[in-house]
Specification:
Hypothetical protein af1432, 0% strand, mainly alpha, single chain
Length: 192
């Protein structure tokens, strides 16, 4: 890696790592908005959610013969823009789809400016692929994002936060993969 591979005033790998880690810290501190809204005590962070999505995604990618590196990259960075714009509930995203998409793209592009060009290009491409949802890998990660939300809802409901039932139901509706939908439905069959 040479100095020429850095952009946006970043002059070293040390500087790039420090700036990127600031975003990671933001995700570690940022509590998921949906859980806060429904009154869950001590809700998971966006980083915890992204990590769970990544682990579930790579397992499923392995089982389905998909590119594990592509899936892992996509799963780990899918919520990275939230380090800049905050965590938005699905309702907020649906109400302002175009504006939110633009803000997310701006945020990920801004974060990428501090990275070496090769990494920035890969991360931007992975995030765009996830956002568009056209590839098999992107569709998997998008569904696993909802699956993890549903699984977390089951955990919170069984821990006493009954109001998380709406999030569980929302996750069920949003999952497109029939197998993943059946799995979530089966795991939560005693909830309703």
């Amino acid at each position: 890696m040479t100095l020429n591979s850095f952009r946006g005033g970043v002059r070293s790998l040390k500087e790039a790592l420090a700036k990127f880690y600031e975003a990671i810290l933001g995700l570690k501190r940022l509590r998921r908005a949906g859980w806060l809204r429904c009154g869950v005590r001590e809700p998971e962070s966006v980083a915890a959610h992204s990590y769970a999505v990544a682990l579930l995604s790579i397992l499923l990618a392995d089982l389905r013969g998909l590119d594990v590196a592509e899936v892992a990259r996509m799963a780990l960075i899918h919520d990275l823009p939230e380090a800049v714009i905050g965590d938005l509930t699905p309702e907020q995203k649906r109400r302002e789809v175009k504006r939110v998409s633009e803000k997310e793209l701006e945020a990920i592009a801004d974060l990428a400016k501090s990275l070496p060009e090769e990494a920035a290009s890969r991360y931007l491409q992975a995030w765009r692929s996830y956002a568009e949802g056209l590839s098999s890998a992107a569709r998997l990660v998008r569904d696993v994002d909802k699956l993890e939300m549903g699984l977390q809802a089951i955990h919170y409901i069984r821990s006493g936060s009954r109001s998380a039932i709406d999030i569980y139901k929302s996750a069920l509706k949003q999952i497109k993969d029939p197998e993943l939908k059946r799995i979530l439905e089966s795991l939560g069959k005693d909830l309703a």
